[in-house]
Design brief:
- The chain has 180 residues and is mainly α.
- It is built from six helices and five strands.
- The strands form two sheets. The protein has a three-stranded parallel sheet with strand order 1-2-3, sandwiched between helices. The protein has a two-stranded antiparallel sheet with strand order 4-5.
- The longest helix has 21 residues.
- The chain is globular, with a radius of gyration of 18 Å.
- About 15% of the residues have low confidence.
């Protein structure tokens, strides 16, 4: 069997951080504040993207248990990850982080550009719950597990300790439940 059709023991997925960065780049390019909630159109775009991704995974690995990992609240450490990151800001206005000329990029000082604001993380987590319910998939809400540990992050991503334990112990629990 090919690598793409081989059965897997389990799979967990989420892309919410990159999707929020995408929205944040677009806001920054148009000088909109990322403190504003996501629009209904953006939430619908995310819902469709997540749904399509999960359906593709289910078709590709039909015998593999799948669950959604909920996004964690980044908190104020997201400011340092968002405001001046070359990987997330293109002065040319390109939508892709691989396009555009990065030299001379300067952040706007007019509006906040923390791409991972609390309201947006909450909206995305809520949409993850909706999709999980619609598709009948379990959701591991890492956001609930990680809440209060934001100071132990490397900007957006939880540090290896205690992030590794906070992430892997509940996932191992989910795997144990699958085997019962």
């Amino acid at each position: 069997a090919s690598v793409l059709t081989r059965s897997r023991n389990s799979d967990t997925t989420h892309s919410a951080v990159w999707d929020l960065a995408y929205f944040g780049r677009k806001d920054r390019r148009t000088d909109l504040s990322s403190d504003l909630p996501l629009t209904p159109e953006r939430l619908e775009w995310y819902r469709q993207r997540l749904t399509n991704t999960l359906l593709h995974l289910q078709r590709t690995y039909p015998k593999t248990p799948l669950w959604i990992r909920g996004i964690h609240r980044v908190g104020t450490s997201g400011d340092s990850a968002s405001s001046t990151s070359r990987a997330l800001y293109s002065p040319s206005g390109a939508d892709s982080p691989t396009e555009g000329d990065w030299r001379g990029a300067t952040p706007s000082t007019q509006h906040s550009h923390n791409y991972f604001t609390d309201i947006r993380c909450s909206q995305i987590r809520g949409m993850q719950r909706v999709v999980a319910h619609e598709l009948g998939l379990p959701m591991f809400d890492f956001g609930e597990v990680w809440e209060g540990w934001q100071e132990h992050q490397d900007k957006v991503h939880p540090s290896i300790y205690p992030g590794g334990a906070a992430y892997w112990l509940p996932l191992l629990h989910h795997l144990k439940l699958l085997s019962v």
